[in-house]
């Protein structure tokens, strides 16, 4: 994302770096991020969905360790 003096960085590259940061902060690994397509092309809605899913999955792991049974809010896509 470094730019030469006087040049602005590419918007898609900048957005990809921002999205990468947010996804890693939510708990995705670098290997997970490789599975996504171009991070600069992810929509705001898709980013929100990915972050929510990861946060809820991580929270469920903590609850499951404490002996609490969890259920997903939505049915998995395969069952629809």
List the defining traits of the structure above.
80 residues, mainly alpha, 3 helices
Description:
The chain has 80 residues and is mainly α. It has one domain. The protein has three helices and no strands. It is elongated and about 55 Å long. The relative contact order is 0.11. The mean pLDDT is 81.
Give the tally of β-strands.
Answer: 0
Percent range of helical residues: 55-70%
- Terminal residue distance: 41 Å
Q: How many domains?
A: 1
Portion in strands: under 5%
Q: Stretches where pLDDT falls below 50 for ≥5 residues?
A: none
Helices, by number, come to 3
- List the secondary-structure elements in sequence, H or E: HHH
Broad structural category: mainly alpha
- Cα shape: elongated
Major sheet, described briefly? none
Q: Nearest-angstrom radius of gyration?
A: 17 Å
Mean pLDDT across the residues is 81
The multimeric state of the shown protein is single chain
Briefly summarize what is shown.
With 80 residues, this protein is mostly helical.
